[in-house]
Amino acid sequence: ARINDNDGEFLLIEAADFIPKWLNPENSDNRVFFYKGELHIIPLSDTEEQECDFSDAGLTISEALALLSARSEEFLAAEPIRTAVYRRISGYPEKIQTSLHRAHCYLPAGAVAVLKQRPSLVAAAVQAFYLRDPVDLRACRTFKTFPPDERVMTVVTFTKCLYAQLMQQQFVPDRRSGYTLPLPSHPQYKAYELGMKLAHGFEILCSKCSKISPDSKRNVLCGPLWERFLSTLKENNYFKGELEGSVKYSELLRMAEDYFQRSVTEPESSVEVNPGDEVLTLLQTTTVDLKELEREAACLPPEDDDSWLEITPDDLDKILKE
């Protein structure tokens, strides 16, 4: 498994005093892995005797996995590195629960449906909102994907970091967006505000999804590779007996075309799906049952206490010493 976050190979930060001098954020992509429960680092050069060449081309995922499966013993990280990393991650995954925060959010029904299918997308939505710029906010003037007219109350699970990022941001929505907030004295003001911010994040994500030109799509779908792919789908009853040209058949065909287009045009090393594309795909393939969501909203569990946001200097010192 490869483990990274917005900061890159964050595990290496924990072992910064012990990692090789050649290893840095610019060349660490696809070189740091957990393999069979142990930390491995693939060097820039094949042998230790060779001088490390910092201009070496980066590895693709497939190349890295091939090296690991064939020569994993050579790439086992040094003992001091492993000790530093293991000390930091001891107690996980059990300790994950202590870093989560559950909060009520008043969200568009589509966003609720997306999060039910893929709860982890909340991170991408928060980051999109947190790192927004004026260009991003243009998409939030009209809200083509997540309009505010069908919103429901729900419980969203954040990490404490993500929750704090949303809570600490001062933001007033564009009047054209349709998103309005009740008075701060309203008992559910926080849920409305959180939902509004999260909806902006989802809308920004979708506005940045990959856009394939019609000409490019036509070229890819005219070749023999597509014909074989389509033939295989038919043989495996992908269209479920739907008549060619029917609404359902056309919808399934469009989804197959989009998948084929992405698989052909994306580079081999690309393993991450654009979050906006994933959100739009989920919206297209998930039934949004507004009445069911409203029934669930009527009996939500209580949200977590967020008094931990009010941290004292002494508490901060204690955390930093841990």
Automatic annotation (TrEMBL):
Pfam families documented for this protein: SGT1
GO cellular component: nucleus
InterPro entries in the record: Ecd
N-terminal signal peptide: none
Domain of life, per lineage: Eukaryota
Protein's recorded name: ECD protein
